[in-house]
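User: Structure tokens for this complex, please. No commentary.
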Amino acid sequence: MDTILSLLGAGLLQAFEPLNFAMIFLGCLAGLFIGAMPGLGSVNGVAILLPVTFLVPPTAAIIFLAALYYGAMYGGAVSSITLGIPGSSTAVATVFDGRPMAQSGRADQALMAAAIASFIGGTISVILFTGFAPPLAAFALKFGPQEEFALMLVAFATFIGLGGDDIPKTIFSILIGLVLAAVGFDIISGNPRLIFFDMVEFQRGIEFLVLAIGIYGIGEMIWTLEHTKGAVQMHKVQITLKRVWDNFKQIKEYLPTTAMGSVVGFFVGTLPAAGATPASLMSYGLAKSFSKDGDSFGKGNVAGVAAPEAGNNAASTGSMLPMLTLGIPGSPTTAILLGGMIIWGLRPGPLLFSESPDFVWGLIGSMYVANFVTVALNIALIPVFIRVLAMPFTILAPIIFVLCVVGVFATTDRMFDTWLMLLLGCMGYLMRKLNYPVAPAVLAIVLGPLTERSLRQSLISSQGDPMTFIERPISLVCILIAVALVSYPFVQKMIRKRKEPAEAAE
Amino acid sequence: MKFLKTLTMSAAALAITAPAALAEWQPRKPVEFIIMAGTGGGADQIARLLQGLIQSKGMSPRPFIPINKPGGSGAEALSYMAGKEGDNHTLLVALNSFYTTPIIQEDLAIDITELAPIGRMAMDTFLLWVNSERDDITDLDSYVEKVKEADSAWRVGGTGSGQEDSILTAMMEKEMDYEVTYIPFPGGGTVAKNLVGNQVDSTVNNPAEQMEFWRAGNTKPIVQFNEEREPPYEDVPTAQELGVDIVYYMQRSIAGTKGMDPEAIEWYQNLFHELFQSEEWQNYCETDGLTCDEWLTGDDLAAFHESQMQRHRELIEEVGAESITNK
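Assistant:
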């Protein structure tokens, strides 16, 4: 432990060196704006700014890129809350409750909660990272396809066992998402499938962000316009110091879910190939399942903003772990960071911690500092972000529409995806109008491919024997949790039914 | 009148573009660097190294952006290339699935010989790897014995049906008369990780993919599939030495789109030739066990692709397409 502390101390000192600290500040600021722009996620940001980093030493360079990565995680929440468009795929779950909060005039509360939860998530996970990196890396190795599949079941279960929502409609929504996720090349055999109208564009599958922006940006906008007939309905928020303080004190309401989201997010982030998007969705689902008033989720519950934000920030730290220790990036952004490391002459792998301690601990030290910098920047900028909502919705709506179109085109560079986004937007509108929950469809399209692959890999490896999921301890535990989550609402109903006659008799 | 207007306008347009055409061609927007495999694999590492070298040496006025399109054993990347016909800002980092995937997936409708041959950067090699904890496997004989004992439940990790490692696995099955279960993962890096975590029993990885785990003592090579022993694996016998007739290399080359402008092709050829000769690239080849002696480009490279295509057709016929796809 002593050695860890002294190494960490050296790392922190390194983070405070003028050049490194400047890199943290610039990275966070750049990340914040890149994350807040729909269509410009942390992946693009890191890719575009990678060449800039060749001007500074490797440690300063990765500190800059890592800070940018965190900044973008925070920034993604901003457009999710103020505009209702996910700024990046990792911030989709933040729309679920962030949007309703903004519509009821609580955008500042949502932004504050997002900033604080991100800070807590980032900090908890960097502490876990500091203390337990080697054992966690060893644990990540134990995660084979069976465990991955079981974990995915837990994620789906959190969305089915939501109690309040109509369960058949939730399942229907998940199935729609799964069908859309199956479009494109078969993961195992490589054959094209579900190519609608034989259009080659479908071979590449449906990008998740296309669906998310379509459903949340376009679908939601049409629905809001119809619902309010274009009348102004965003409340102006007066920012006073007292209100800021009140918002800060609200922390009590979401502290438990934030803590849970942080741990879940970090853990999911450490698994190679998962990344921050599934982590934030799972944190949201779990927060809703364990909440006393799960029904209020999706309607503007502050915990519904805090949980995914804690989750995605924790995961972004977590995904550094497989990148550094296994050389396998846990997310698309870390894949680019990995490329940077190879150019700087660093070899990510099991020996990195012992061969380049300065680099590793400098990076870890900077993660602590970056968290403080981003939370401070975020809270300071809330009044600026809020101004967006002062515009009448009749002006805001066309702007959102343009941002959706530009955002999709900028991400995929294909007009096909832009049309698809508009089509999916209409689908989202219909689902919304018919009272189908859309969040489960979003979850399914993110987790569908991961689930399918791990299921098929497991079954191939066990020669088709499904018992393989029960024979492995980690997988068994996850499956039991999933079963408990799914059956929970039914059990609850039965208990209620038994109680009611008893109460009536009294 | 309208005719006159059109005429003056086209003359004006010509006047604007003419000086630009005279200057040497160079990228005017970021170049998409399409990788037909997943993150962390050999192709991915190479692409990211090249991208970094291009940027750190200031060799291109616009950056190269690596994009992974691993779906369908590289089919995703190939169909993407097909859709970019005539585009001067899209390049493909090709490996052997460049040949095998179009052979196996007939409905893909892409002729790789029509893609612009930019340059062959290296020939990569394969080794057979097992986890270091397997004390019972010390050489090829004990390996074959264990695989046969497992009776087709032996799990081999790979990057996808039709990928080069699946063909090599099928060649081994045929030569050594055993059967295995082939499990596809997204990318060579993930394959390597699953061997360390004992999720699979053996793999055929490129040296670069296992290098760090090997150095850390997590995995060990059993046999290499080169003609001669290659550094840094001088202690590992070749398959031929042991009487198994398998020699298999993997090409690492860069291809442009079909119908790319000749000026653009030439610019990229010069760029990659310079990279090929750079000290950084040659060092990487040495430490990671790649062979980078001979630079191939233009017609020579096209002829090489032609012969490799033919060889893979024969190989796939020999082992049977079903043994690769129906796993």
